[in-house]
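Propose amino acids for all 412 sites.
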């Protein structure tokens, strides 16, 4: 397969290549945004601004909350910064508007009175080392800038960040590593770590700089977020080994606290003949007891549940680490670090690394994982088989059961 050269403009992330298909992609840094004009004047602040005036002091909590507000609203990217109103997003908090590109996004998060550019953000910030990064700081290059969200694993240099990158995706959260060659397109060496001059130091909750240690080796795929204590910590195989017996009573869709308060349930999974559920607010994991016709709480907060013949698994909502349920309430075993996604197929647990660089299979022992494939856009399961997509072409491949052996689905 010949080498492909792709030119990416304006905050566009670099593409990666599916190693199984033996392809390769190179990219050029995105073109820096240059729009200098501002939309209508900023007049006041609101809840996200916590009454902080634009251009004034702002806490790390506020910065991260503002960045996540664009992610939640799926604010689209636009490079036509001077052609309002299509390229300027009205900000309910400040009453102003910001460009919908990478530096406009950071200007909004920092609550600046106007949209700066990658070349002018340094005028309101001080340079720091990469190891000093905290939620709300930025990584800025001549062609792109991202907002640092928090460490996934400080020792390994993995972290998550927020950005506006290209027209194909709205504002979103992504994952990076200080050990990688590139970050969101440009070479990592092109970036400078900057801290806003008027940032106020205070705890940042979810974005707090307190990630637990991640898996070692190619270990569990790493997509994650700092972590308070693991929610009853995510997942482990059911000790009952009861092959698929159906519950004797239909599980209710609402659990109850010890005080009798109803807890709406959001998602359900089955493993080893048992039915499990995650609270709608992700505050706890429950197991259905057919004998007592009620839900039993077996774990604390979790982001997602995964289940199959291999058991019940869950991800920590803060660190992203993957855990296995031991079979005993509130007893979960950490088996790996964060991943972009996990699936259970054929009794085995698989994960895609946070940076999409590899597909991994859990060995079933401690936190040991084996890399079985190169870069992938997504992983999924069907009919007991594992599938992954080529991140460049979108072609679907089926895992043949041995590391790095994949077959294009169309060729099966």
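Proposal:
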């Amino acid at each position: 397969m010949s080498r492909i050269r792709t030119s990416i403009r304006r905050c566009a992330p670099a593409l990666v290549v599916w190693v199984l298909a033996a392809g390769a992609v190179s990219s050029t840094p995105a073109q820096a945004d240059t729009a200098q004009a501002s939309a209508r004047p900023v007049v006041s602040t609101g809840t996200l601004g916590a009454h902080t005036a634009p251009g004034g002091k702002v806490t790390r909590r506020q910065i991260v909350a503002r960045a996540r507000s664009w992610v939640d609203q799926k604010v689209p990217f636009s490079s036509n910064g001077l052609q309002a109103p299509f390229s300027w997003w009205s900000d309910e908090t400040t009453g102003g508007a910001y460009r919908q590109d990478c530096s406009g996004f950071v200007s909004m998060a920092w609550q600046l009175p106007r949209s700066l550019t990658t070349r002018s953000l340094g005028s309101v910030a001080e340079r720091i080392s990469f190891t000093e990064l905290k939620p709300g700081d930025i990584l800025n290059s001549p062609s792109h800038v991202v907002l640092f969200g928090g460490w996934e694993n400080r020792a390994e240099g993995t972290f998550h960040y927020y950005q506006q990158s290209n027209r194909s995706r709205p504002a979103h959260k992504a994952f990076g590593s200080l050990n990688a060659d590139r970050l969101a397109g440009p070479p990592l060496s092109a970036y400078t770590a900057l801290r806003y001059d008027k940032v106020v130091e205070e705890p940042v909750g979810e974005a707090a700089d307190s990630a637990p240690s991640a898996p070692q080796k190619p270990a569990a795929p790493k997509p994650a977020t700092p972590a308070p204590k693991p929610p009853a910590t995510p997942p482990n195989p059911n000790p009952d080994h009861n092959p698929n017996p159906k519950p004797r009573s239909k599980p209710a869709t609402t659990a109850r606290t010890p005080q009798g308060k109803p807890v709406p349930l959001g998602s359900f999974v089955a493993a080893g003949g048992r039915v499990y559920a995650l609270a709608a607010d992700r505050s706890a994991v429950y197991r259905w007891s057919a004998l007592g016709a009620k839900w039993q709480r077996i774990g604390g907060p979790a982001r997602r549940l995964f289940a199959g013949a291999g058991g019940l698994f869950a991800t920590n909502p803060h660190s992203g680490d993957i855990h296995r349920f031991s079979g005993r309430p509130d007893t979960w075993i950490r088996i790996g670090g964060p991943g972009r996604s996990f699936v259970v197929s054929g009794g085995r647990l698989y994960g895609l690394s946070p940076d999409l660089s590899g597909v991994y299979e859990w060995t079933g022992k401690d936190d040991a994982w084996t890399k079985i494939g190169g870069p992938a856009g997504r992983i999924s399961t069907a009919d007991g088989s594992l599938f992954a997509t080529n991140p460049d072409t979108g072609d679907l491949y089926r895992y043949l059961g041995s590391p790095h052996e994949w077959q294009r689905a169309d060729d099966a």
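Residues 1-51, 81-86, 203-248 have pLDDT under 50 and may be disordered. The chain has two domains: 58-207, 254-411.
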